[in-house]
Amino acid sequence: LLLAVLLWAPWWALHGAPLTELSGDQDFQLFLQRNLEFTRKIRGDAAALQRLVCDTLQLCKEDELLLVRQDLDIAQAPLEQCHRRTFQAETCFSQIRAGLRVYHGSLATIRALLPGHAGLVDTLQLDMANLSSNIQQQMEDLGLATVTYPTEHQDPVPTFSSQFHHQVGGFFILANFQRFLETAYRALRHLTSL
């Protein structure tokens, strides 16, 4: 329940700071519409992987795995800049791109857990890279500051002490990623309404 409150409560504050300089821009609105659809597709693929983890590994309920999670070092990309009262597109976009980078690397864990579905993981990673690139391009088009992450210094893939910890880690990587995508989707949708 607390997790649900933490995930959904910040959204009441999203109606702050208007971005009048962006709201009427046709190209920006087209970017938002296309990438809302793209984010929806990525969310669907992440959910499909989560169902495969449930079906294949019998890991389905987050509350049953919370004790094990304490022993795991699972990255959770922050998106607090995407739901603050002082919402700014530049900082939100930067956090979305940074989070996509974190989860892109972490998905190697899922590929190892579900080798028969490596193609879905590869597609998901490609889509994530493309979404990040789309956001970077839009930020550049708008004259917003961008950060380009060097590909050779990717975040390390999480390591686990046992196969069970690897499985639970994969479950939480996907659960965190889906929450991240939900927040990113809501931020993009919020920008369409400004």
From TrEMBL:
GO biological process terms held by the UniProt record: immune response; positive regulation of myeloid cell differentiation
Gene Ontology, cellular component aspect: extracellular region
Domain of life, source organism: Eukaryota
Subcellular location: Secreted
Leader sequence segment: 1-16
Keywords, alphabetical: Disulfide bond, Glycoprotein, Growth factor, Secreted, Signal
GO MF terms, alphabetically ordered: cytokine activity; granulocyte colony-stimulating factor receptor binding; growth factor activity
Keyword Signal (UniProt): yes
Record family assignment: Belongs to the IL-6 superfamily.
PANTHER family, alphabetized: GRANULOCYTE COLONY-STIMULATING FACTOR
Protein name per Swiss-Prot or TrEMBL: MGF factor
Annotated organism of origin: Quiscalus mexicanus (Great-tailed grackle)
